[in-house]
């Protein structure tokens, strides 16, 4: 017993030395963080003279890339990016509070996408519809808006695509968020549950699991998974399909986690603003175009990308809602519109397209 007690004392003394070193480092880190914060305040004063934007997505992407490339561990690259994103968010808030609209209510994946892109030191403002997020941004009631645009299982979000055509907003960033659906209730069981509520896409993404495990329970679509979780928190006969953020916010319990049919289920969100980011080094350009309804028109639309060796990562058609069987083509390209090859391809495309709108060039979410 004596040897054991002596061993415990030795271990505690050894731990105390490490803890003392950590405490000293924490004080150094705190001093450096406040030094960085004061510089951010100085930058804010300079920006205020010219009404420059408080956030430059391409600059923040470059900073994170530089730090990730310089990292030698043991912290992983995602850890480094997460830590410094929050540091930049806190410092940015000292320049000016940033307001971000997102598809609410609280607890949605859209809210999670806001924190993922901006960090937690912004004013996130839930709205009831995707169209309202665009409206608030166009009316300059908020600085940015975050909206879902496509899911790896269920495809594109039509309401976002339609709003992009008419809005004056520019795409200035993107978030690719893994979607892990949970079936949530007040009790953590399905006993007494009369209906399962979720956004239509969430129900579709969990179709097989629901058919096997809850075939007898009525399904009801609502405006968002956050709205479903709120309903479940108010009614013990309602179950919701939602994520961890909603589970925590509404104090629900999981009947089952990871009920999505595709383990790699991912939703892509667009970050919309009024500014047009410069090149970050790893960028995307999104555009929408239409062409005359004649033979070879689509081929002519795509040929400039091939001729300029510009990689196209997405092509999707959508009815133009004119009633004349006309279509818009939504296209994502690798590269920035200021890149020489992309600029030439866009110039050539303008010659063949009856309509062309560059929706924005912005830092790509998946960076190498």
From TrEMBL:
Domain named Prephenate dehydratase: residues: 99-274
EC number(s) stated in the UniProt entry for this protein: 4.2.1.51, 5.4.99.5
Subcellular location: Cytoplasm
Chorismate mutase domain mapped to chain residues: 9-99
Keyword Lipoprotein annotated: no
Molecular-function GO terms, alphabetical: prephenate dehydratase activity
Record keywords: Amino-acid biosynthesis, Aromatic amino acid biosynthesis, Cytoplasm, Isomerase, Lyase, Multifunctional enzyme, Phenylalanine biosynthesis
Catalytic activity: prephenate + H(+) = 3-phenylpyruvate + CO2 + H2O; chorismate = prephenate
Keyword Repeat on entry: no
Record Gene3D superfamilies: 3.30.70.260, Chorismate mutase, Periplasmic binding protein-like II
SMART domains, per the entry: CM_2 (SM00830)
Residues covered by the ACT domain: 286-363
Pathway listed: Metabolic intermediate biosynthesis; prephenate biosynthesis; prephenate from chorismate: step 1/1; Amino-acid biosynthesis; L-phenylalanine biosynthesis; phenylpyruvate from prephenate: step 1/1
NCBIfam families associated with the record: CM_P2, PRK11898.1
Functional description taken from the UniProt entry: Catalyzes the Claisen rearrangement of chorismate to prephenate and the decarboxylation/dehydration of prephenate to phenylpyruvate.
PANTHER family assigned to the protein according to its UniProt record, in alphabetical order: PREPHENATE DEHYDRATASE P PROTEIN, PREPHENATE DEHYDRATASE-RELATED
Official protein name in the record: Bifunctional chorismate mutase/prephenate dehydratase
Organism name: Limnobacter humi
Gene transcribed to yield this protein: pheA
């Amino acid at each position: 017993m004596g040897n054991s007690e002596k061993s415990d004392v030795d271990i505690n003394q050894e731990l105390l030395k490490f803890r003392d070193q950590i405490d000293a480092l924490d004080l150094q880190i705190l001093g450096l963080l406040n030094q960085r914060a004061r510089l951010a305040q100085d930058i804010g004063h300079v920006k205020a003279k010219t009404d420059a934007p408080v956030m430059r997505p391409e600059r923040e992407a470059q900073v994170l890339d530089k730090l990730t490339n310089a990292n030698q561990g043991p912290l992983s690259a995602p850890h480094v990016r997460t830590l410094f994103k929050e540091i930049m968010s806190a410092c940015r808030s000292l320049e000016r509070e940033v307001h971000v609209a997102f598809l609410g209510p609280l607890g949605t994946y859209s809210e999670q996408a806001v924190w993922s892109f901006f960090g937690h030191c912004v004013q996130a403002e839930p709205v009831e519809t995707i169209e309202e997020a665009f409206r608030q941004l166009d009316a300059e009631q908020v600085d940015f808006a975050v909206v879902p645009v496509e899911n790896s299982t269920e495809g594109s979000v039509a309401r976002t695509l339609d709003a992009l055509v008419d809005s004056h907003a520019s795409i200035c960033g993107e978030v690719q968020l893994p979607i892990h659906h949970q079936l949530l209730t007040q009790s953590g069981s399905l006993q007494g549950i009369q209906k399962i509520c979720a956004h239509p896409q969430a129900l579709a993404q969990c179709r097989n699991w629901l058919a096997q495990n809850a075939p007898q329970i009525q399904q009801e679509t609502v405006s968002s998974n956050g709205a479903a979780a709120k309903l479940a928190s108010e009614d013990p006969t309602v179950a919701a399909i939602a994520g961890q953020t909603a589970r925590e916010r509404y104090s629900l319990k999981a009947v089952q986690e990871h009920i999505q049919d595709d383990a790699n289920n991912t939703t892509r969100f667009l970050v919309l603003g009024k500014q047009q980011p410069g090149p970050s080094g790893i960028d995307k350009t999104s555009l929408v175009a239409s062409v005359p309804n004649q033979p070879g028109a689509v081929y002519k639309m795509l040929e400039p990308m091939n001729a300029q060796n510009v990689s196209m990562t997405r092509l999707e058609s959508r009815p133009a809602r004119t009633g004349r069987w006309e279509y818009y083509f939504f296209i994502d390209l690798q590269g920035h519109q200021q890149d020489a090859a992309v600029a030439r391809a866009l110039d050539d495309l303008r010659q063949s397209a009856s309509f062309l709108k560059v929706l924005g060039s912005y830092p790509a979410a998946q960076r190498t």
